[in-house]
Design goal:
The chain is α+β, with helices and mostly antiparallel strands and 195 residues long. Helices cover 41% and strands 20% of the residues. It is built from 6 helices and 7 strands, in the order E-H-H-H-E-E-E-H-E-H-E-E-H. Bound molecules: coenzyme A (COA). Coenzyme A binds next to helix 2, strand 4, helix 4 and helix 5.
């Protein structure tokens, strides 16, 4: 199966890491999830208050959140969270795409970025508690079968190969530099819209 790249998405948005100051964009995106997507994302129904609190702690312990932005607004997220104080062998990943933007390849694109970020930090196992009964997530995982070994009864993706290489580290570093510029542009777009 062809890997999903930034260029293969029909929507011309941009995917990048969020800055720690962008908790509001993360919160607003999570608030816009429809009830079913919200339930799938958090594995149970959660209140607006829960999301407020969850978003504020977005960058706790150096966790990574990728966002997909269109015209300065964030419409999808992918999170890679440490399970302790340091990046260890295992981490947790979660994905959310607003309903109007689902099935366009955004989740697959973000999955690729999460796998690369995990590999670059020495993470071998990614817990995705959403996999077992989630057809879309299983579909995405299959698209990354070259990088992920999955057991669908289980909720763990094993990253193969396990070690980072020069290219995966360079690619992430280059994207981070561009991502910082895009964050500034997204902020400007939001300010212009709000004026
Ligand atoms: C799961 C989710 C992250 C996937 O993101 P997405 O951007 O919609 O995914 P993509 O478009 O990259 O891929 C979805 C694929 O699943 C397919 N699909 C849609 N419904 C499906 C179903 N019921 N069963 C199997 N495959 C399905 C789509 O056709 C698409 O495949 P294609 O690209 O070959 O056409 C997103 O739909 C979402 O946020 N859902 C609600 C929250 C959630 O479930 N989060 C995961 C919990 S951590």
């Amino acid at each position: 199966m062809q890997p999903v790249t930034d260029d293969s998405i029909a929507l011309k948005g941009t995917a990048r890491k969020l800055l720690p100051s962008e908790t509001a964009a993360f919160r607003d995106h999570l608030m816009r999830l429809d009830a079913a997507s919200r339930q799938f994302r958090f594995a149970h129904a959660v209140s607006d208050g829960f999301i407020e609190d969850y978003a504020v702690h977005m960058s706790d312990m150096g966790s990574i959140v990728f966002g997909y932005f269109i015209d300065g607004e964030m419409h999808a997220a992918a999170e890679l969270r440490k399970l302790g104080d340091h990046w260890g062998k295992a981490a947790e990943a979660a994905f959310s795409v607003e309903k109007a933007y689902q099935d366009l390849g955004i989740g697959s694109l973000l999955m690729g970025k999460v796998i690369r970020a995990a590999r670059n930090r020495g993470v071998h196992l990614v817990y995705m508690s959403c996999l077992a009964d989630n057809g879309r997530m299983q579909n995405i995982a299959q698209k990354h079968e070259a990088s992920l070994k999955l057991e669908y009864g289980e909720v763990i993706g094993e990253i193969v190969p396990t070690t980072a290489d020069y290219f995966s580290i360079m690619a992430e570093a280059m994207e981070d530099r561009v991502g910082y510029m895009l964050a500034v542009l997204d902020l400007q777009t939001r300010l212009v819209k709000a004026a």
